[in-house]
Protein 1
Amino acid sequence: MLLLIILLIIGSVGGFLAGIMGVGGGLIFIPVLTYLFAQFPDISTEEAVRFTLANSIALVFVSGLSGIYRQVRMNIYSFRKSISVGIPGAIAAASISYAIQHGNWYNHQRFSWVFLLFLLLSIGNMLFKKENDSTPDEIENRSITARILVGFLAGAVVSLSGLGGGIVMVPLFRMILKLPVKKATALSLSVVPLLSIFPIVQYLSVTQAPILTNAIVPTLNSMKLFQTEYLVGLFYLPMAIGVVVFSSFGQKTALKTPTPIIRFIFALLSGIILIKTVYELF
């Protein structure tokens, strides 16, 4: 029972961050899931990574759906803008996720170096770049190539890291599409489900996912996991409940929060991910 309460709290924190920052919450989910799946010594490191990515991406999907629901209620949801970025992102996410599942080419360390450079750029953008004041018409007229590029990069990050893609999309929306930060975070959250749906389907349709047994933590070993391929209900469901409830709360908080504070918090989150990435590399 204590484990379920802890997972519910973790999901709530991730959902709140998703709502206020336009990210999927993977920053919170990935470390927790990594720890949990490390408790099963009968699966390989590669399989543990797949379990972690699958469950994190599924949680990211829920946070995005919750965000869209709230945006529709607030009358700020733009289907057209979401699709123009989300479709190329979904294609990239599906392609790379398939390649990860069916090959051994993926090297987390090489990806981490690329991701590290982007995080530095993202932090600088949030701390030092002034707000853009583009009108809705100007945003609509941005190059379709620019939108495709943003979507593709975000989709790639979702599959390669398990993060929601928002950590990439929000800075790129500001740099390439010239969106102010609050519009960038709202659009980012609405694109997240499109980026994550295909990887989720792939992880659920895989028939060779190993059955988790022999957890070295007695509490886990005595609990039913409710496993469906790479998705583990025991871990996923309580976190998803927290995400759904607090994602909406995060969005409402974002509307009342001054823009400089949101930018600072986003830079702080990027900094935390940067430190974690550097630690893993060295």
Protein 2
Amino acid sequence: MQVKLALLAEKQFETMLAYLVRYNPAAEQHVGFFGESETEIRETLAEIAPPLTESFWLAWEGDELVGVFGADYDPEIDRAWLYGPLVTAADWQPVAEALYAEVQKCISASIHELDLFFEARNLNGQAFAARHGFSLRSNNAVFRLQRADWKPSAVPAPVCAYQAAFFEQFEHLHQTLFPTTYYTARQIVEKQAEDQRLFLMVENERVLGYHFCKTETDSGYIDFIGVDAAARGKGLGADLLNAGLEWMFSRPQTGEICLTVDAENTAAIRLYEKFGFASGRILQGYRKRVD
């Protein structure tokens, strides 16, 4: 049967969501940007900046959905994140290529970096990245902490909430630790709200570390945690991590907390395991520079 492509229609959102919930958890198909559970995928889609009806393409065989590919992008950091291809059609490659051709037209011409994010066992995704000139830039380990495995600290962490007076120091530290990441320091500060918090470790008016995390419907996520290289080995990372965990688990509905970390960052992994985090998937990030 011939495959037909079409932009997502608003009335098709739940159909697309059900497709992603059904197929994205499988290792051989997993696209890291989407997440896994229905709640996680729904909230991820809600955060995408361009309207989904203008940035997500679907592939259909008759009335059956057999492929999804979309994009999110941010002109401020000059990058687009490609949500796909997730394809279940028998002819994986031609359907993926056709979807990609349409999705590229949806991305602002001002964008010069494209990112892909696949499970390490998603061989179709890896081949797709290679065909289109994307370079492997990272191997990321996914860690999750269940509420039942969390042991609260008896000693309050010596951290403070973000204060505007420390912005320049925070910005410098963030740029140093995560020079090519997905949020700028100013974006992090502006995102602070009831469900997103930025904690600082400050000694003698000097910012030594920070932790930016958020809560979602029934979970939490650690976006960034880092310590100045000159201040490491003093337990500051553990204090920052503990402060964020305390805040996220203070909500009774938070059942688990998730994070991704460089799979070769053994020091960070030891810290997370000490707090009860358990490893899951390995996700591979790919990037391509375009004119």
Protein 3
Amino acid sequence: MKEYVTVDGKELRLGYTTGSCAAAASKAAAIMLLTGKEVQLIRLLTPKGLELELEVEDITTEKDAVSCAIRKDSGDDPDVTHGALVYSRVSFTDEPGIHIDGGIGVGRVTKPGLDQPVGNAAINSTPRRMIRENLEEVMEMTSYEGGLEVMISIPKGVELAKKTFNPRLGIEGGISVIGTTGIVEPMSEKALTDTIMVELRQKRELGYEYALLTPGNYGSEFIRDGLGLDPEWAVQTSNFIGDSIDMCVKLGFKGALLIGHIGKLVKIAGNMMNTHSKYGDCRMEILGSAAAAFGVKPETAEYILGCAACDEAVRVLREEGIDRDTLDLVSSRIEHNLDSRAFKACEEGQEFETGAIMFSKEYGLLGETGRAQELLGRIITQYGK
């Protein structure tokens, strides 16, 4: 790619995801299978709206199938998959439609709660949609009305997976094919925290005394769909929860309400104020120990420790009838740690209130801290709604 972003005064080159590689390789293989003409370069429009022109590598033509690869380019973003070849083998099948699966180096989902159901190849929803849409385009262009089978493989994926959290999450045998925009955008931590500071300062200068914070898009969606509020009120903090609280205190806000998915907020119960996975993952340990406090059976606690996603753990807690008690305990620990962080940031005599609302996409509202509703009311009032 020849697209760049400026980060900390430096130009950093964008890259493209494993999902884009899989879709581009599939499109190229389908064209060669259905037209009989070799493809050296393939164009792909990403969900972000950027068009890629990618070199097609290692073409293999069989009687009823074509295989080829696209080399992953992460740009200037550090990524273990950079340089890996992502293969797609497209073949004819008697079954109508487009059928997508994973081969060597593509992980297989073994635990519930992930983007794909147990048993499926770890090819996430957006890459699957990209593959399907591009193959439908090729099929329409060539007037082909039969079925196609797509097999995605990443030969280096077995080794690369050992450098990721995939085995812990319940993805075995390889890496995931991921990407929601199709593009990899390098960005430094300083650039991210600077952006958060700018947004918070703008809201403070507009006279707002209470900050609404959310880690990302899931939180913004819940603010809109779950609470019926304008997500533009919120400042997205990414993983920088602690830094954002510090900024709010420094800028003179009187309080902050954090609204986030349980997968992020449960880490705060363990006093992880930067929730990025590279700093650790204590989600199931926290949920398991909290459940144990209410007498859950050892084998159930052990099962929770092995869950891949928080929604699966919540399902188990509900079956045991202790979800409310457990999540209330987690909420109280979140409140304690947010308050402690704010207290340390405050100057002598300064007061600052914190609150949090925790949800999941499957179960909706899961828990809230003691001052959450009061802070929410103040935020609604200050925006005149």
